[in-house]
Amino acid sequence: MILSKNLMPLPKLNWEAVSNINHELAALAVDAKLCTEWKSDSQNEGDYFELDLGKVQKIRGISLRIGQKPLEYPRSYKVQVSADGIHCKKIAQAHNSLLPLKAFLRPRDIYLDIVFPAENPRYLRIIITRKNKNPWSLAELEVW
User: Fold this and answer.
1) C-beta neighbour count of 19 within 10 angstroms
2) How many domains does the chain have?
3) Which partner for 64 in 79, 112, 119, 126 could form a disulfide, CB atoms 3.0-4.6 Å apart?
4) What are the backbone angles phi and psi of residue 125, rounded to the nearest 5°?
5) What is the pLDDT of residues 7-65, one digit of tens each?
6) Which of 1, 141, 124, 140 is nearest to 57 (CA)?
7) Domain around 44
8) CATH classification of the domain holding 66
9) Under a CB-based contact definition with an 8 Å cutoff, are residues 92 and 116 in contact?
10) Which among 48, 44, 8, 51 has a CA at the least distance from the CA of 29?
């Protein structure tokens, strides 16, 4: 992961994960186990994965670890943050995201890093902005 060279991931204390699809599996994306995952059925506009960090924390990026499934990452998305869960701010977006070639050098742990200017949110939401037939898998979500 690109982010790990300069930063340490936040500890996953008191985090709560929710999603509008397969909600019962959302916690598996933040359980510190790459062998478990949250997964969508496909990617539909408006689908989201949200993380409550438990308190306001300074962050600079996220790593979406998708395990060994190179086709199961978000192709078109936006990332929003919020300190209060009501007022949201878009901090990143991609319309045709591609995995970096470096991600395939370690095919057991493919990831997509999303880097943005430092923010101080409690809530983080990744929203799909365009339909794609492939599912979206999250073996683990790291926040930096």
Assistant:
1) 23
2) 1
3) 112
4) -135, 130
5) 789 999 999 999 999 999 999 999 999 999 999 999 999 999 999 999 999 999 999 99
6) 124
7) 3-143
8) 2.60.120.260
9) yes
10) 51
